[in-house]
């Protein structure tokens, strides 16, 4: 069985999209799928093309016994709406161009979105090749862009985006939402296309507790300090402003230090917040290679999962939520909705209201002074992931759904 995966993001890029795409290739290839990938030349999240791919229009390589075709995009930092439309639109065009110049027969075209333009590419390519089309929906777009303040709900871009979204849903033979709440939204907008929920999860081969993270991470650290950390993209969902404010409040406790690992389109917002409050206990160390991420998480005494207080974000669970738990690191989650529900169910997470820096600071200090509670949270974490959110097990379910589409 042959599958064409359309994913704008793919390793060595970091972030939820690249992580999910890699897991799909890794584990579907073990389920008798012959996979090809179309992705962009790596540049996310910095907007700068990685050195090995500069001055190239297209490059093919092998990964997990699968062919990865990387195509040119207008690489940029995605700071403005024009830049975002430019990079997403250029991927749509060059992925279509690649297929037209290299026509092949596939059993399924599988596109993962956002960005929504990857979904458009998948829909059009499936028509060109006369094959089945499956759409993977990680965020509801353009609603997420509105709640993140990127576009106005009355704007042309929102109305046009909603029209595109509904059109893509109707083209699909199957839609794969990552949460049941997202599925409910999709069903209200498109009743005729079947849906099957396959949640995000974590690759347990890669994410586990490192006993000696200092042997892997780049920076020296004092094991006597209480390390509070965030690892991930600096994107529209993640409320690092509240984390910076909480760090400032915690300055009175000199044993606490804050670490932010990551980069992305919202880096300017984070820079301004750090410049404004100037917390002397916070270190933003930038982007790190994906293989080092589990070691950084393992070095934390407490991990923070901050999400903005927006209705649309109540229907998601961030990938870092699962990664933190897989590494047996206690978590404070600033969230509502599904993420709060999952945190409460896990027994490994303390959930508080979003955008509450004073409450976050108080919770951090209380947990620092309560090692037995930290130990209790840590003890519950990995077993919860093993039972519910192993990428390998989830991809086995996905494989069965894909096979049902082509039978």
Structure at a glance:
The protein has 407 residues and is an alpha/beta fold.
Element-level helix/strand string: EHEEEHEHEHHEHEHEHEHEHEHEHHH
Oligomer: single chain
pLDDT averaged over residues: 93
Number of strands: 13
| Proportion of helical residues | 40-55%
Quote the distance from N terminus to C terminus.
11 Å
CATH class group of the largest domain: Alpha Beta
Strand content: 15-25%
The number of distinct structural domains comes to 2
Second rung of CATH, namely the architecture of the largest domain:
3-Layer(aba) Sandwich
Which strands sit side by side, in order, in the main sheet?
3-4-2-1-5-6-7
CATH topology of the largest domain: Rossmann fold
What integer value in Å does the Rg equal? 21 Å
How would you name the CATH homologous superfamily of the largest domain? Glycogen Phosphorylase B
Largest sheet composition: 7 strands, mixed
Outline the structure in words.
The strands form two sheets. The chain has a seven-stranded mixed beta sheet with strand order 3-4-2-1-5-6-7, sandwiched between helices. A six-stranded parallel beta sheet has the order 10-9-8-11-12-13, sandwiched between helices. It is globular. It is 42% helix and 17% strand. The chain has two domains: 2-201 and 391-406, Glycogen Phosphorylase B (Rossmann fold), CATH 3.40.50.2000; 213-388, Rossmann fold (3-Layer(aba) Sandwich). It is of the alpha/beta class.
